[in-house]
Amino acid sequence: MFLARALHAVVLLSTVADGAAMKIPRSSSGAQKLTYSHYGPVPGESPLYSTYRGKTPPFPANITDPILPTRKGKPGVDDMVWQNLLSAEWAIFSFYQQGVETFNKTSFVEAGYPNTTYDRIQEIRDNEAGHLRIFQDQISDTSLKPGACKYQYPFNDPESFLVLSTFIEIASMTFLTGLVQMAKLPTSQGAMTAIAAVETRHEVWSLMDIWNVNPFSGPSDTVFPYANQILDLTNVSS
Question: Under a CB-based contact definition with an 8 Å cutoff, are residues 10 and 168 in contact?
Fold first, then answer.
């Protein structure tokens, strides 16, 4: 519960519509194009999700509306897990995107951090954009694919941003390993494990390059068994 409360303190969600609007998701023609898995750059095939450098959000984060179901039928076996994860990923991506927009290379150098820090933050932002696309594709066409909310984060300088970044990466790894236990399909479990490995790399970079601490903490990381307690905090309509 401490982890859940702490993440709630990090991610302060503001309402983006009145109650009636929250019950009736609004989409757009641009968002509905995301139904097709090969629309736009494909994770694993496009370098966009590692090498993009720019202040504006990369695809698919430049399209923030929810994706409405395109056919009727029962939801996929793991749709709810992926929906919760996609909601959380929007919050995580938005954190890094705000960092990219707020700071620049000089901001971190003048604060005493390595001159590669801003570039690495952009790369992590790109990775998180790729996660958005992966999670969208994992949700079946019979289920809603969540869009973004508006997010506020308690950082006001490079140091407070990096502190929050480290915590978010630790929390991400923890609830992802917990979600693996909730997924029923082996393909879902494998995809979540692969994403958790990427989040761990982000965490290790932060611990070693930013804080100069030993990233080795034992033979196993923490598995948070109630991952939805964390993810539910990212759902503004709950």
Answer: yes
